[in-house]
Amino acid sequence: MPTFQYGTTAIEYDIEYADDKKDVSIIVEWMEGIRLIAPKGITDKQLEGIVQKKAPTILQKLKEVNEITEAPLPKEFVSGEKFAYLGRNYRLKVYRKNRLEKVQLAFVRGKFIANVPSGIDEYEKRHQLVKLFKTWYIEHGKVKLKSRLKLYCSKMGVNPNDVQLKEQRMRWGTCTSDGNVYLNWRIIMCPMPIVDYVLVHELAPLKYMNHSNDYWNFVRSILPDYERRKEWLRINGPTLTLE
Hints:
Strand order of the largest sheet: 1-2-4-3
Number of helices: 5
Number of strands: 11
Strand content: 25-35%
Radius of gyration: 20 Å
Shape: globular
């Protein structure tokens, strides 16, 4: 993924090439980040120059998008609260226990169970549960991704160097030039078809690094309804959060 340094800020952007384009369009979307739609034949140096010239406007637009996107209220981590996992909601049950030193989290019979020290304050309880839930999503997400990765690598004829779930504040996923794929751990809250879309979206650059027509045709050949999945993520993405 191309990156341009503007002051202390690294600006990452995707590129799509279109046959009918005569100029460059710059689109800024929540979690999708920055996307350039450019005419075929334009050089990387020309695109970098455009990004450099428009950098202040791009950063301001990115700030505005993040501010206006309606996100849910932060989780309170109380009994009865629901947490999404692979598209389904599961309730949390909180138990306060004596002689317990730290917060514990488990998933038992379709329910999240949190055991917390009886004397813990709400701030510390929430702080620890946020960390435990993130760890839980990443660990269980790795298991789910393993089979999906095997399926789609075979279908797509690609072999990533590494695939990881990690914290990514502004993107659903990233594919680096050296073949590493990083996925936002929040996708594990999504229904599996959406997880598949993000995975395919980030594996496809291993065949077509830029978001050209060939890239999107390749994605469509794997997921004919990818646009519907992409739209689901655009609409529901802001709700996939703990904080």
